Amino acid sequence: CARDDGEGEVALLQVHGQRPLRSTGEELNLAISAEEADNNDLPAYMSGLQAPGAGSALDLNLMLDDHSSKCETVFLTTLLSTRHDPQRAVSITPNFTYIEAYYRSILSLPGGRAKAVILYDSLDEDMTSKYEIPDAISFVKVDISNMDPLLGLNDLRYQLFEDQIRKHPEWDTVFMTDSRDVVVLHNPCVLVERQPEKVFVGSQTESMKPRWWF
């Protein structure tokens, strides 16, 4: 993390997986080093924003890329509740808690060049207006009532993602993710620029519950 001391000197501080949320008004100008603070000194809004491996330092090169990169990433995700989820055999209750970790992780990315577009079908307007942040978090209402009823939520969301991408040719790098169980630690557009021939996919090692479509 870079800090300007006011005299034009910039100090690099090692940060143990913790970053301040992106400022929505005045600049935060906050940096916490391993020597200056421990986890007990962290402000409440920074709790939970820790990289994998308790106490491990974030990769310095990726941190510097987050601050200095010029590219932009749009993260597309969904919060859909009007259709039954066949994987979990339930319909979710739409609320902020469901996406809170994801939401806060997007805001924790420095540089202001990553934003999330959350596609939803039944959120209250009070919630979307409260949590929408210009150039950082936006909520887009979608209608899934006419989509193929045989499509599960994991499948139909990609049609929604495609619609959004076609509507926004100005988007350069787009990542499509879950929201409930995902946090974003870095802006990935730098990695895409360096290896444009690569396909970036996620993976998980735990077993999936047995379902009829397997």
Spans of at least 5 consecutive residues whose pLDDT stays below 50 are 1-58
What is the string of SSEs from the N terminus onward?
Answer: EEHEHEHEHEH
Strand line-up of the largest beta sheet: 5-4-3-6
How many strands in all?
6
Cα radius of gyration in angstroms = 19 Å
What is the tally of helical segments? 5
Q: What is the assembly state of the chains in this entry?
A: single chain
Category from helices, strands and their pairing: alpha/beta
Structure description:
There is one protein chain. Helices cover 23% and strands 14% of the residues. With 214 residues, the chain is an alpha/beta fold. The N terminus is likely disordered.
In short:
The protein is of the alpha/beta class and about 210 residues long.
Which characteristics define this entry?
alpha/beta; two-stranded antiparallel ribbon; 214 residues
Task: Please specify the SSE layout and strand pairing.
Layout: E1 2-4, E2 10-12, H1 60-68, E3 73-79, H2 96-108, E4 114-120, H3 125-131, E5 137-141, H4 153-167, E6 173-176, H5 189-194
Parallel strand pairs: 3-4, 3-6, 4-5
Antiparallel strand pairs: 1-2
